[in-house]
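Why predict the complex rather than its parts? Because the way molecules touch one another can change local conformation, and only a joint prediction can capture that. The input here totals 321 residues.
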Amino acid sequence: MDSSLTTNRSLASLRDFFSAERILICFNGPTSRTLISEIGVALKEHIESSSDSLSAAMDVFSVYIEMSQNIRHYASAMGYVEPDATATVVIAETSGGHYVVSAGNIVQAADGQSLVDRVASLAELDKQQLKALYKEQLRRPRQEGASTGAGLGLIDVARKSSAPLQCSLDALDAGKAFFTIRATI
Amino acid sequence: MTQEPGQASSGTNLDLAATVSTPAIKADWQAGLLSMVGESYPENTYEIFDEIITWVEAFLGECDKTLRVELQLNYLNTSSIRAMIDIFDRLQAAHDEGRDLSVSWLYDSRNPRSAEMGEEFKEDYSFAFSIAAMRD
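Output of the joint prediction:
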């Protein structure tokens, strides 16, 4: 990152960018369980205060928690240390009154590809099919699918989204890739 | 009083205060009452659920009292949902053997997601499972 961002002028332009993109909360860096919780609570309270029903707040909170915990479980299972263990999370509002939760992390390229395939297969299912798959996964032994840390959580995210999940994979050096997932609630 | 997981014995009670990511938990052996109030999304569910499951197993296995389970849970992450299933499966097994037990799911009427979560649990079990909105 450009070191000039530490100047007031550059921070102002970063702020302008966040505002233009209607970003509520974003985060890039090493995570801790406390940090994940604190950001989540702030996010939930913000949405609760601007909405009649708690449903939107609970859905955004839930998607954010599942994505963040998936990243932490994966980094831990892979034995990643900084900077590979870093998470990038962005929560934004859309002009149409929806919320978008995006999360990105470094993965082994092969794991990233299987996530991309999984997201694509979930995108073909309707709400009833997602519920059936969710219940089936709920009854499966925990170890299955644990390699990517994205079994039940990913289905849950898909169920809470109002549009199919989107994702992308950007290749990095040394057999790694940066995986991004985006859910619209 | 709390005990290490796996060490619950007859008459043991649990009384755990809520944290930001775990619910308040009370288990009263004498009253035959287990309650959980709050939100549950710890990174590792065994941190709290091992203790609850051990208590439930001891209570169901070592006495024949009625068990009432009262749940006021606003939010559960998917790992906590799995852990709840582990508890409900034990209740179902005991119910199948004729044990008197019930689950009462209470939700904040402003939070329909909690009601839906209760409904999704309920549809997989045949023991008494009531779902009701709390009055303010």
